Structures are given as C-alpha cells and as structure tokens.
Amino acid sequence: MRKFNVLVGQSGGPTSVINASLLGLVEQALRKENIETIYGTPFGVEGILNGKLIKLNDKLPGLRKAAKQPGAILGTSRYPLAEEEYGTIINHLEKRNINIFCYIGGNGSSRTVLALHRYAQSMGKDIHFVHIPKTIDNDLMGTDHCPGYGSAAKFLSHSIQLIARDITSLKIKPRVEMIEVMGGNKGWLPATSALFKHKESDFPDLVYLPEYPVDGDSFLSEVESALFDKQRSILVVIPDHLKVKNLPENSLVKNDSIRGNRAGVSSQLAQHIHINLGVEARVTVPNQLFRITPGLTSRIDFVEAHCVGEKAIDFALLGYSGGMVSIERVSSDSYLSTFKWMNLHDLAGLEKNFSQHYWDIENHVPTQDFIDYVYPLIDEERPNLVFQLEG
Questions:
Q1: 135 labelled as ligand-binding?
Q2: Annotated catalytic sites, by residue?
C-alpha cells in the first residue's frame, strides 16, 4: 500500500468557516490507513518556503475548537509566489515526503495550485495538488457557491436590518447612513444586503453593485429623491469596489480616519452628499466583521466547508491533481448539495460574474431568483424583529 503525507495551508482573507475546512481535511486524513503524517504550513506558502511546518496528527482537539472560532488558525498569506520559487516549494515537499498538498483559499490560491501542479508534472513529480475553495466574495468559477459566502451573506442581510432598527429609533433630522460592503469586483455579497427588502419603504433604501458604475450627479439625485420620498434617514449600501464617474475634485478626500491612510469610496460619496445637499452623511465600514462574526455563522456554510475539506483528501487519494473541490447544488426547494472534482485549467483566477437576472437595478433590489439562490445558504433564517408598535 502506498503511503501518503499531507500538507495543508490557508490563504487570503479568512472566513468564519475556513477552520471548518481544515478540520474536515484533518479528520478525514486521520481516518485513512495509507496517510501517515499531516502537516500544516503557517501563513500559506511562506511557511513552506521557510521550512516551518506543523505536525497536525495530534492537534485534533485544538482544531475542533478552532473550527468554531473566527480567523485562520494556521495563519494566511497573500504572498505572490514567483515562478522561480516553484522548484523551491517542490524541494521542500520532497524533503518531507509530502505527496498531497491542499490549499484553502480564493482565486489567488487556485492559481497557485494550478501552477504548482503544472510545474510538478513537467518535472515528473508525483505530487497531488488540490484547491479547497473559500471566499466571502463568492466569485470562484466552477462551483455553485463558495464556503464562507453563506455566513457573510447571513451577517450582512441580518445586520442591515439591525442597523435599520437603530436608525428608526432616533427622531432626528434626516441623514444618510452609508454602509461600505466587501465583496470584491462582483455583486454577490452586496446584493444580499437587500434580501429582506419586500416593499419600497423597507431598508436598505439604495443598494449599489460594483458591476454598475454610477455617475456622481445621478447618485446625488437618487439620494436626494430617497430623502424627499421617505422623509426620514436613509440607508445606502456601497460596495468597496464601486466605480464612480464624474466625482468632483472637492469630494476626493485625501485621508480618512475610518480607512487609515486611504479614503474609501463611501467616504468620498459622503463628502459629495454633504457638500452638495447639505445633509449629514455617516459611513460605517464593517470590514472584518463579515468574516469573524460567529453568532451569524451559517450552519449550512459550516457543514459544507467541513465537507470540502474531507473531499479534498478523497480526491487526492484517487489521484486527482490540479483542480478544486466544487459544490454542486442538487436542489434549492429542499436544499441539497453534493461535491465534485473541477479541473482548474480553464478556471483558475477567473471571477464568476453576478448574473444580471439576479438584480433589479431600477429598484435596487434582488430578484426572486437571487433570493431563492441565497436563502438556503443563510439557513432560511429571517431576522426576528419588530419594526414599530402601534396602538
């Protein structure tokens, strides 16, 4: 029987379930008689290059605790692996007799997995490379959705409604509350902010997606109309990658205490509102909260993240390499998913587009098709809130 040693790493921005994938992988590897040693690499490929690996065979109790906490327990990295370092990586793997390398991450990790697979093949090395998907952006090609996305969607869709209750509690002069949302270049995550907007008077009032650039004057007009129509404070969702055309120079603030040494697009738009409408505009930037809020972790997300870790081991032992563990949706009505192997040759690094039929751009709301797509991923849970007492 051929014996295997496994190496696993975590890469990119953590999610609330990234450690669940790590746990699933280690648990499955420990079940296999032909797997001897399981290593973890601290801070992604940097740990391999530094030769600092951690033996995980006896770390199961700690990993089970870590699976329920935010952050990546091994540490992640966005280190851009250079082509001349491929050979160094392979050499380090061979020194430890590692013949399975699994990398948990997003688009950058998929490129790394494919590049190392191709290099190893060209050198005649029998090492299997497997990508385990992870991103709150949900923009990986070849999978119905990505582990981490469901929890981020649950956090955003619910927290928007909580913020709305805070807004309606204050009897003040109407102002603009802006929430800057992560999600990369695609609208998968920002669109979930309006999952529970059922009528025009509901929150959020305006939602923008990175696929649809906005004009500075048109944006101002929409904000002004919403303030006039609602006669209350309004809630506006801005993706951090939104492109704004024709924004006046006096709106381009050079420094922003919220964002450190650079001004986010929300801050620029808030300045634009204040200068031209004379209305107070405040900005909230949740940033890491999308990734670290355990109270709103999706149960489905946790289970699937654990499963893709398990399946990575199964596929590697079957001889697969240069691909990703993909989630395939079998049913949405009574939600059911399965897992399959997806080659990365034509997919690595590509971003999955947010479908136009998922978004009603005129009314700033998702379509029913998108609601049906996301709802199972947030455990079909709605915020249990009372808007206002009457009597």
A1: yes
A2: 137
